[in-house]
Structures are given as structure tokens and as C-alpha cells.
Amino acid sequence: MTPAIGAAAAPANRAPAVDALVLHAADNVATALRTLAAGEIVRVRGGGHDLQIALRQVVPLCHKFALADIALGAVVTKYGESIGEASRHIAPGEHVHVHNLVSARARKA
């Protein structure tokens, strides 16, 4: 597919300007746009955010990581909605997944 007239093609060797997205201003997690390495300082944008954060662990493509401290039992927010609660303290830059998040959808009524 050729770029539209007037559109500049991005150089193939250039890293993306953004590594992760915040989907809503109320979110306390961001979503990785590629697999991110432990120790990497990543650029996060969206939802009124434009920041850099150092990752504590590998974060796979499309997985979440914490933007700030999330206390044990605190609500984890993505899409501006609660997706569950922290099952332990989650530090900024830490991968957020089933090992530290109790899903709101997985709970029995």
C-alpha cells in the first residue's frame, strides 16, 4: 500500500514516538503498543498524559502496566472503568495482570 499524497512514510528503523497508550484520563494503567523490556524508559501518551516511565518488568504487547502506585485492594482503572482490584501493592512501571489483579469480571455473584 502506498502512502496517501502528501503523507510522509516513517523510516523503517525509527522507534515509535509512543510506546504505550492511556485510554482514558481516569486510568491508572497504560497499554503497551509493543513488547516492552524491563528497565526500559517508555513514552506514554493519551488521556491527558504525556510522560516517561521506567518499567520494572517485561510488559508484553497489549498488556498493562501501572502509571503510579496502586495500593492493595485499590481499583485498577482502564477505559475509565474499574477492571478489578489490586491483589497486592503494584509499583509504577510494574506489569499489571492476573498475578496482581483480581478481575471484576471473574468474580462470582
Description:
- With 109 residues, the protein is mostly beta strands.
- It has one domain: Archaeosine Trna-guanine Transglycosylase, Chain: A, domain 4 (Roll).
- The chain is 0% helix and 33% strand.
- The strands form 2 sheets. The chain has a 6-stranded mixed β-sheet, with no helix packed on it.
- β3 and β4 form a beta hairpin.
- About 5% of the residues have low confidence.
List keywords for this structure.
six-stranded mixed beta sheet, about 110 residues, mainly beta, globular, three-stranded antiparallel beta sheet
Query: What is the residue-averaged pLDDT?
Result: 88
Largest sheet: 6 strands, mixed
Classification by helices and strands: mainly beta
Measured distance between first and last alpha carbons: 49 Å
Total of helices: 0
Order of helices and strands: EEEEEEEEE
**CATH architecture type:** Roll
Global shape: globular
How many domains? The number is 1
Enumerate the strands of the largest sheet in spatial order, edge to edge or round the barrel: 4-3-1-2-5-8
Q: How much of the polypeptide forms β-strand, as a percent range?
A: 25-35%
- Low-confidence spans: pLDDT under 50, at least 5 residues? 6-10
Number of strands: 9
- What is the CATH T-level topology? Archaeosine Trna-guanine Transglycosylase, Chain: A, domain 4
- Using the CA coordinates, give the radius of gyration: 16 Å
CATH top level assignment: Mainly Beta
Give the helix proportion (percent range).
under 10%
